[in-house]
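Here's what a typical entry looks like (ABC transporter ATP-binding protein):
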Amino acid sequence: MIIDMKHVSWRREGLTLLNDVNWQVAPGEHWALLGLNGSGKTTLLNIVNGYFWPSEGSVSVLGYRFGEVDLRDLRKSIGWVSTSLQEKLYVSDRTQNIVISGKHATIGIYDLITEEDLAFARSLMEKLGCAHLWDREFRTCSQGEKQKLLIARALMAKPRILILDEPCNGLDLFSRERLLASIKDLAESDDAPTLIYVTHHTEEILPVFTHALLIRSGEVVHSGRTEDVLTTDRLSEFFESPVIVEEHNERVYVRIED
């Protein structure tokens, strides 16, 4: 299993933030993680990355059981892209240097840049449709362009798992669709890592995401194949309100029932 979590709970200061979570991700699967703000998505991801230790239950990632592996080494195989990372980067850095810094997961570059690094960074930027940004200052890029660069940065370390944490936040409709198209191409590539796409918008869940997990108040409400999870009945139960599911181009749109 890529991820194997069994009966995982996490408590802090008397609060249960995750309760009895079971989640298995098999090779070849890409997952969407759907939940409203405060549902426990970030806590779950912090456990996958080994930043939080479960109060109960067992966790294995990439076949390594927590407690039997150096988590610092394991994290090198996991890329995590979030908009909060943008605030930590040097805005005057050149785009290719932003991407290359992902090789060592550093803010800025402190090692010699090799021709191989430059070639790999360029190939990643081409794959994500942002090669035209080469040698631009990071601050001159749009929000959508920055997100593509951050994904390329995460891929620079050749991770086996790539977590995309609400990557479309703050994007307009057109920027969102361009970013989603790049994510689709990435997921369909032969050397794609296992993708975990985190969102609270069902319409962002592309057909390439074979499975979905619905989390609410720290508990898994449903998980399984996407077409079985994103249904009117299950989403109405999940949102605790009657909703109507409409499908367009293999993507699910939800509206509140009148």
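The helical segments are 41-48, 71-74, 95-100, 115-127, 143-155, 173-188, 226-229, 232-239.

More examples are in the samples folder.
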